[in-house]
Amino acid sequence: MSTSFYKDNLHELKRQWQFQSCKQVSRRKYDNTPVRKQILSPPTDNSDTSSDNIVPQTVDFTEKGVSYHSNSSSVLPSATITYDQFSALLDLKFSDMRSAIREDINCAICKLKAEFAETTDHLAALQCDMQTKLDIATKNIAKMETEKTTLESQIHKLNNRISTLEKISRGCNFEIQCVPEKKNEN
């Protein structure tokens, strides 16, 4: 709003500043306050100030902004709005805040996803390393078990051979009988 527009339409603007439900308030006994005098003073231009000449206006609140619609050529922004218009304005402001909050939340979610992906990739790499070490250890254990069974079978064969050789060697032994034994004699 420009300064010249404000000065030219000051009286009309001040009249519109009243809330809709306050227009029919009964006058008080002492109503000669400085504000009341300014509102009731005659306008500086010689325009008609009767309420019949007030041009009805509608205010639309959209996502793109506020737009005023008037039925006359002189466009004065209305200072009084309805509850629906106020609700629309609040919804517009809240939608802006919601979108900003959504952006912040989406950014935080993206950061968390990146950190989570990095952590899971690290854990997957550690698990892969552990799996390869486990596979190597399992192969070594299997190899040692086969060696153990091979060695046990060889030990069993060697024990059988020793017992067989001892039996054969006993066949070459001879026994002397009727010789008295002495102490400390083998």
Total number of helical segments? 4
Number of strands: 2
Question: For the CA atoms, what is the radius of gyration?
Answer: 54 Å
Task: Give the ordered list of helices and strands.
Answer: HHHEEH
Outline the low-pLDDT stretches.
Answer: 45-59, 70-76
Using the alpha-carbon principal axes, give the shape.
rod-shaped
What's the arrangement of strands in the largest beta sheet? 1-2
Helix content: 55-70%
What does the average pLDDT come to?
76
**Proportion of strand residues:** 5-15%
Separation of termini? 135 Å
What is the makeup of the main sheet?
A: 2 strands, antiparallel
Query: Based on helices, strands and strand pairing, what is the structural class?
Result: mainly alpha
Structure description:
- The chain has a domain at 3-81.
- The radius of gyration is 54 Å and the shape is rod-shaped.
- The longest helix is centred in the C-terminal third of the chain and has 89 residues, at 83-171.
- It contains 4 helices and 2 strands, in the order H-H-H-E-E-H.
- Helix content is 59%, strand content 6%.
- Strand 1 and strand 2 (65-70) form a beta hairpin.
- It has a two-stranded antiparallel sheet.
- The N and C termini lie far apart (135 Å).
- The chain has helices at 3-8, 10-16, 34-40, 83-171, and strands at residues 57-62, 65-70.
- It is mostly helical.
